[in-house]
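Hey,
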Amino acid sequence: NDMLNFFGLATMPDSFATFLPWFVSVLIGIELVLAGIKLNLGQIRSVSGVYRQMWYRPVFGVIINLVVSIVTVRFWGIAGVLVGTICAAVFSNFLFDPVLIHKYTFQNSHPVTEYYKNSICYFVLLLVVGAFDMWLCSFFFVGYGWVSVAVHTIICAISVPAAFLIVFNKKPAGRYWMTKVKQLTVAVKKH
């Protein structure tokens, strides 16, 4: 039922501007990014078999989520619950998982600090690009229902990968993807 309400609101002019405050939208975006990172860490954890070492992490995450949500919901409403969820993800998943994965899977052959440095850089870049996209989309195709949603999705789908390719093109993953983009460009030009 909530999904139907959302899709119904998406077809009305200016629905996104009145549906949620901007900071709640930003918190939802941050939570989605963190969910993607948690998924990747979970896959690595599952493949490497690091289960026993992390038995306490879910309990720790639930406690953090409940305490922070209960305290912040009084002041910020639903945004407080999102802050609790984000804090739980940061303090349970992102503090424990990389350390234990590096310790038990990689036998500390790679410094975990590099993982944290890269993650912080990626996250800051996402925040900057997200803020730019939010600003750009507030002027471009606003109030056209599904057309606005489609145009804003295209803007975001182009700007985020482009920013990552530009900023990280000197790193191995960036060089790999730059090569793939060039190959795709050549293939498209041939047809």
